[in-house]
Write a structure and sequence with these properties.
Elements: E1 3-7, H1 11-23, E2 27-31, H2 37-44, E3 48-52, H3 60-70, E4 75-80, E5 92-95, H4 100-116
Length: 117
């Protein structure tokens, strides 16, 4: 069982992913405001966080680099309807619209990799 934080200002996406991961036996929480992410991370301590790259007026890539210094054990997955540009090359990325079964497999694989290390 993993702990997954979904960060997206689209509450429909948050609800869908939370339900999907909960049905898989994971603990899932959502955050629809970038300003509340630090609070959620401190209280929930996720194994994986999924960030929409267009949330608020924030540079999500820079924001998550800062988060990784405070939470180095947390895996980060970015998601967007846009194609990943050069900044996101080499990062874990989910393209919207997504197939929920592929997202489930992708996240489960990341969680299994964490256990194997």
């Amino acid at each position: 069982m993993g702990r997954i934080l979904i960060v997206d200002d689209n509450k429909g996406v948050c609800s869908l992913l939370k339900e999907l991961f909960t049905m898989e036996g994971h603990l899932a929480k959502t955050c629809s405001e970038i300003e509340r992410v630090h609070e959620k991370l401190e209280s929930f301590k996720p194994d994986v966080s999924i960030f929409d790259i267009h949330i608020g007026k924030c540079d999500v890539l820079e924001f998550t680099k800062t988060l990784k210094t405070r939470h180095p054990e947390m895996e980060i997955i970015f998601m967007s309807a846009d194609d990943p540009d050069e900044c996101f090359k080499g990062q874990r990325f989910i393209k919207k619209p997504f197939d929920i079964f592929k997202v489930k497999e992708y996240v489960n694989k990341i969680l299994l990799e964490r256990v194997a290390v």
